[in-house]
Design brief:
The chain is of the alpha+beta class. It has helices at residues 46-54, 96-106, 111-124, 140-152, 170-187, 198-204, 222-227, 232-237, 275-278, and strands at 2-11, 23-31, 35-39, 61-66, 69-70, 81-84, 158-162, 190-195, 207-212, 215-220, 244-253, 256-261, 264-267, 284-289, 294-298, 310-320, 323-329, 340-345, 355-360, 366-368. It folds into 2 domains: 2-237, 3-Layer(aba) Sandwich (Rossmann fold), CATH 3.40.50; 244-368, OB fold (Dihydrolipoamide Acetyltransferase, E2P) (Beta Barrel), CATH 2.40.50.140.
Length: 377
């Protein structure tokens, strides 16, 4: 069952003739019970899209349907949605109980039912012992739980969440991320979640919508977005550290096809030579591989480049938890080109300036068109 449907949605603000629309030709179906994440850099249109679903922003053109009904002209109150904001939006002079009960009182729900619902949800969120306190008397994480509880007690058709964790510290963000995911699985509520944090997007969403300049770049599962990005923007935006990009061209040799530039020559496995990729033989293109899909070791003295690896000098070693990120300068002539980053083991300790041999997993190598940025398939 389709819960929310957006059909060719546009948002153009008045007096912005020379500025691109905030949202352009946005079409998407969100299924009942789905957790959908809108992700992208600041200003990409994700919050504007969410606010149009909520009815807080007017639509320039297009249609939004909730439960099969067009809601373009309905007020936010009549759309049966609940929104959780970045800044919690709690009433400072009301207790946590009254904040959670506020929407139910507007519906003129019976008092005993309000008490039952609020206490039940507060217990699930582990804030039932705080209900008599004011928002200023509890932590940011607890205020965010109240905001979630206020949305949940209303039992809306759709939950809309606008960067609800961005004001929390790193530890609390992880905890609340887990809490929201658990609540979604328990309630099976249709949820649209906006974030600029790709970790939140990748760990929470059933599907992810990557946006840029008001346009959808790709819609897919976290695995699809990570492993088969539709274009160079998505490939570079998703992933930490980001994907490595290497300029080069395809060259036909006696033994097959190689991806080459002045510093490397990598043999393309025969099964990767699709008709689409074969069109790029003797043409420039951009190769790409994630830091996760490369092996690294010290180069032996006198070792020369081969068709399954390349060499570079270690510029920087970053220790990040159980991983070590190695920044390797393989292109010694162009200092403007970013070094290749390899995710290595915490035990891989190399001094700066060490000559390293990098062996990419060519099955995980991707190629992008130089001009369009689209992935070559």
């Amino acid at each position: 069952m389709i819960k929310v449907s957006l059909r060719q949605i546009w948002k153009i603000y008045p007096n912005t003739k020379n500025v691109a629309p905030a949202v352009q030709d946005f079409s998407l179906d969100i299924s009942d019970g789905e957790f959908l994440v809108l992700v992208g850099a600041s200003g990409c249109g994700k919050t504007t899209t969410l606010r149009m679903i909520a009815g807080l922003e007017s639509i320039t053109r297009g249609e939004i349907l909730i439960d099969g009904k067009v809601v373009n002209d309905l007020s936010p109150r009549k759309r049966n949605i609940a929104m959780v904001f970045q800044n919690y939006a709690l009433y400072p002079n009301l207790s946590l109980f009254e904040n959670m009960a506020f929407g139910l009182r507007l519906r003129k729900m019976e008092k005993y039912k309000i008490n039952e619902l609020v206490n039940e949800r507060a217990k699930k969120l582990e804030i039932d012992h705080l209900l008599d306190r004011l928002p200023k008397d509890v932590s940011g994480g607890q205020r965010q739980r109240v905001a979630l509880g206020r949305a949940i007690v209303r039992n809306p058709s759709v939950f809309l969440m606008d960067e609800p964790l961005s004001n929390l510290d790193a530890k609390m963000r992880v905890q609340m991320r887990t809490e929201i995911t658990r609540l979604h699985r328990e309630l099976k509520a249709t949820t649209v979640y906006v974030t600029h944090d790709q970790t939140e997007a990748m760990t929470m969403g059933n599907r992810i919508v990557v946006m840029r300049a008001g346009l959808i770049q790709q819609v897919g599962t976290p695995e699809e977005i990570f492993n088969t990005p539709s274009n160079r923007y998505v490939a570079g935006f998703i992933g930490s550290p980001p994907m490595n990009f290497i300029s080069g061209r395809l060259t036909q040799t006696e033994s097959g096809v190689d991806f080459v530039n002045p510093f490397l020559s990598l043999m393309i496995p025969p099964h990767m030579m699709t008709p689409g990729l074969a069109k790029y033989i003797d043409r420039d293109l951009v190769g790409a591989i994630r830091p996760d899909y490369m092996d690294v070791r010290p180069a032996t003295e006198g070792e020369k480049r081969s068709e399954d690896g390349f060499f570079g000098l270690l510029e920087l070693s970053e220790l990040v938890g159980a991983d070590r990120y190695l920044h390797v300068r393989y292109n010694q002539l162009n200092k403007n080109e970013a070094p290749v980053v390899v995710r290595a083991s915490i035990h891989d300790r190399f001094g700066e300036g060490t000559r390293l041999r990098i062996q990419p997993n060519m099955d995980s190598f991707l190629f992008f068109d130089v001009n369009t940025g689209e992935r070559i398939v």
